[in-house]
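Q: Sequence in, structure out?
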Amino acid sequence: QVQLVESGGGLVQAGGSLRLSCAASGRTFSIYAMGWFRQAPGKERESVAQINWSIGRTYYADSVKGRFTISRDNAKNTVYLQMNSLNLEDTAVYYCAARRSRLGEYDSWGQGTQVTVSS
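A: Exactly. Output:
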């Protein structure tokens, strides 16, 4: 099992920036990829960004391309999400997740961190 703990959420004005962190512990050697997901009130959870743990290949949802950057520090077993030019639609609970294979599901999840963007 992999344990994940997010941090860095908060309240920010539109146009501002936040950086989320997700620290992994446990069987971190089993991680194939990590991702950030978010869920806004009344909406389904959606993928925001994903990163391959070994080679660093990234994927972004269209809604965040050019504004968000996912990165990882393998030595610290930590993945980051730098969020710039935040808008009201980015308000959500953000979750970090990990999966153990290319075709596997994300089966380790953090507790989530609230990001609120105000006008």
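The chain has no helices and eleven strands.
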